[in-house]
Automatic annotation (TrEMBL):
Residues 84-128 are annotated as: Disordered. Its EC number is 2.7.13.3. GO terms for molecular function: protein histidine kinase activity. It catalyses: ATP + protein L-histidine = ADP + protein N-phospho-L-histidine. It comes from the Bacteria. This is histidine kinase.
């Protein structure tokens, strides 16, 4: 399996790329056109697939890509195998140097106080 990620020279990039693509290429037997069309169906597995797995992996990838405003595709890889691609819009630029949260949940602050329902630790008295 080959993971390919490339970025052109930044001097030749537009101000903001419209899409970011991630390609994962393998050199296996590949899939027929019909298998590639069905590969995103939930619980579908290729007839010659090894044992194990549920057939949900590519379905989940596609749904996550769609939920992010992108897409997932499968194509024949040059020289054989499969080219699995995910295409997403780039994250918005942070404004004024502040980091972007990109939809991540906020951290829960730990205030070190014990909740009222939690039992108090036993007190230790020093002998006087």
């Amino acid at each position: 399996m080959v993971l390919r990620c490339s970025a052109p020279d930044r001097r030749h990039l537009p101000a903001r790329p419209a899409w970011i693509e991630l390609h994962v290429l393998d050199e296996g037997p590949g899939m027929t056109a019909d298998q590639r069309r069905r590969a995103f169906d939930r619980f579908w597995r290729a007839p010659d697939a090894p044992k194990g797995g549920t057939g949900l992996g590519l379905s989940l990838v596609q749904r996550l890509a769609h939920a992010s405003g992108g897409e997932a595709t499968l194509a024949r890889a040059p020289g054989g195998g499969l080219d699995a691609a995910i295409r997403l819009r780039p994250a918005p630029r942070p404004s004024q140097g502040r980091p972007s949260r990109i939809g991540l949940p906020r951290r829960v602050r730990s205030d070190r106080s014990t909740p009222e329902s939690a039992p108090s630790p036993p007190s230790v008295r020093s002998p006087v």
